[in-house]
Structures are given as C-alpha cells and as structure tokens.
Amino acid sequence: MLDATTPAQRPTHAPNDHPKVKTERVGILLANLGTPDAYTYWPMRRYLNEFLSDRRVIDYSPWKWQPLLQLIILSKRPFTSGAAYKSIWNEEQGESPLMTITKDQTAKVSAAMQARYGDQVMVDFCMRYGNPSTKSKVRAMVEAGCRKILFFPLYPHYAGATSATANDAFFRALMDEKWQPSARTVDPYFDHPLYIEALAQSIERAYAKAPKRPEILVMSYHGMPERYLMEGDPYHCQCQKTTRLVKERLGWGDTEITTTFQSVFGPEEWLKPYTVKHVAELAKQGKTNIAVAAPAFSADCIETLEEINEEIKESFEEAGGEHFTYIPCLNDDDAHIKALSAVIEENMGGWLE
Questions:
Q1: Are strands 182-185 and 146-153 parallel, antiparallel or unpaired?
Q2: How far apart are CA 165 and CA 229, in angstroms?
Q3: What is the pLDDT of residue 4?
Q4: Does domain 193-327 have CATH number 3.40.50.1400?
Q5: Phi, psi of 54, rounded to the nearest 5 degrees
Q6: At residue 262, what are phi and psi to the nearest 5 degrees?
Q7: What kind and span of H or E run contains 345?
Q8: Nearest to 336, CA basis, from 197, 134, 187
Q9: What is the per-residue pLDDT across 43-61, written as a single tens digit (0 to 9) for each?
C-alpha cells in the first residue's frame, strides 16, 4: 500500500527549483465511530467529552447541556462506561474490539483494492471520535499524493448523528488543506444487494449452528430520539427496509423477524420498540428461544458485545427466556468485505481505470 513515504518527483519540464510532487492516486478513507484509548478514567472522559459535545449527537443548547455534561455526567459516566469497556477489551492488543475489527476490515478492503487497482489507490481508516482522527488521516493521504479521496462512513444506514457528523469531520479536515483534493462521500448502503446477502448468510450460519431454531429474530438497531424522525432524518425508514429485505431474502414470514431499537439515552422518547423491553416481553409471551442481530453496526463494539450480549440478554433471561443467540456483526467476514468493496467501486466511478 502506498503511503506518505512514497518518493516524490519533480514534474516533467519543471525547473530545478520546483517542489517535488507525489504520484497522484486515489485515497479510500473508511470511517467508524471511535473508541477510547483505554478504559481508565481520563481516556474515557476525553472520549465521552468529544462524543457527547457533538451537536449532531446531542443537539440541546450548549449553555444548558455543557454544565450538565461537564459537572455531572462526565464525573460519573467514565467509571461506568470504563467498566463496560473493560469487560470486552482486547487486552492482548491493548485496544477495543472496534479498533481491532476496523483494522482487520481495512486490511482486507485494501487487499481487494490493491488486487484490482494496484498502486493507484491508498486505503486507510479513521475514527470520528478519538484516534486516529479524521484530520490526521486526511493529512496523511494528501501528503501521500491523494488528489482524490473517497470518504466512506461505515454506517449502512444514514443518520445525522452518525453519517453526517463523520462527513462534517471530513469536510473540516479538507478546510485545512492548502491544495484540496477532490472528494466524494459514500451514500448509505442499507439496501445494497450484497450487504443484504451478507446479512442473510450470517443469519443462516447462526441458525444452522443453534441447537434449536430460534422462534424469532430480533433485528436491533441503534436508537435515536423520535423527534429526529419527525425532523426529517431517514434512519428509521432505512432500518425498516433492511429488515424487510432480509426477511424477503430468507423467505420468512412476518412473525419470524422484528425490528427494535437500543441504546436509549436521556429523557426524550426514542424510536420504539426498545430492544431491552421487547425481548423481555417476548419471553413473557412464551418465546423463550430468540436470536438477536445488529445490522446497523458494521463492527462489533460496546453496543453489541456489552449491551446486547450482556444487558439485553440479561433482560430476556430474567423475564423467563431460556436460549439467547447473539449473531455477530459482519465484521471482516468475506461477504461483508465483498459488499464494502462493491460499494467503493460504484462510488469511484470515473476516477480509475
């Protein structure tokens, strides 16, 4: 993979004092949510402060929100969130699972792009919050000669609090470049045939391994305030369509799959039904064998490994549930990499031979 160390050359016919210029190439920058550098108090506080200070995530007036955040939430939340991260931390590599998986995804996407385009491309990743920052990776790509950059937020579904804020960070990084590269951002791919196929295959594999076929599959998506839907955010509709397309691909009936939303935060009403409550209701209704998948996440993270596989599972079992199957995110599965690579190629149309 080409990087910032690739030798630069003086342009043909340029005078001897002309600055050297890197060979032009296309940068493909994958972006995920982010991760703290460690699960101890101060790294957690820095990460949460950056995340919860984003007006795309929490859009309350800063003069109301910031005192609450700085004086109350950030005095307590780093401890509880840190404990949750500690329970899933990749101690061997000293990083969160999201970081490990994103690195693996990037390596596989890079290999796929190199096989097709050779040294014409450079593939890397960044995080919206924490490290490596979007700004640092844009800078590295420009230094490596990327005159075009395809920015790819790894969110199948568009939401202002995910895709839009990632794009915001990308555009802000471009503002600091003296010679700004051409840029494109990737549209949501919630209904892309290869993404739906990858999801369906992962579900089929999980069901094949289950001792007993689950009675229902809960498709748990990250939630958002209902108000955002009313204000025009398309996230809810895109999630519903993903569930419908997966159901149709699997050939299932309406009673075999359902859509829910998790990770409720704050006093507002969020998209319903809430996963944590819905799985308990299913158990009380006699559905004691369920499976849960998280299609909105491209990689397993705190919301899946800790929230779903611990908190939501516990809610189900306390209500009488007996068998809980968590279906991992697509992560670096080959079918997922194939889908991501196809989305990249479609969005690079006209940029490369």
A1: parallel
A2: 17
A3: 46
A4: yes
A5: -75, 120
A6: -120, -175
A7: helix 334-347
A8: 197
A9: 999 999 999 999 999 999 9
pLDDT at 97: 98
Instruction: List beta partners, residue 81.
Output: none
Return the structure tokens found at 338. Answer: 């194939």
Q: Give bridge partners of residue 57 from the DSSP assignment.
A: none
Which amino acid, residue 301? C
- Within 8 A by CB and 6+ apart from 208, the residues are none
Q: What is the pLDDT of residue 19?
A: 61
Is the CATH number 3.40.50.300 carried by domain 25-189+335-347? no
CA atoms within 13 A on the CB side of 128: 26
- Sorted by where each begins, the domain ranges of the chain are 25-189+335-347, 193-327
Residues of the chain short of pLDDT 50, as ranges, are: 1-4
Side chain identity, residue 241: K
Q: CA end-to-end span of the chain, whole Å?
A: 18
E strand residue ranges, the chain: 25-35, 121-130, 146-153, 182-185, 216-222, 257-262, 289-293, 323-327
Residue 273, preceding bond cis, omega within 30 degrees? yes
Structure confidence at residue 265 (pLDDT):
86
CATH topology match: 25-189+335-347 vs 193-327: yes
User: DSSP character for 2?
Assistant: -
- Quote the CA–CA distance of 283 and 285 in Å, as a whole number: 5
pTM value > 0.90: yes
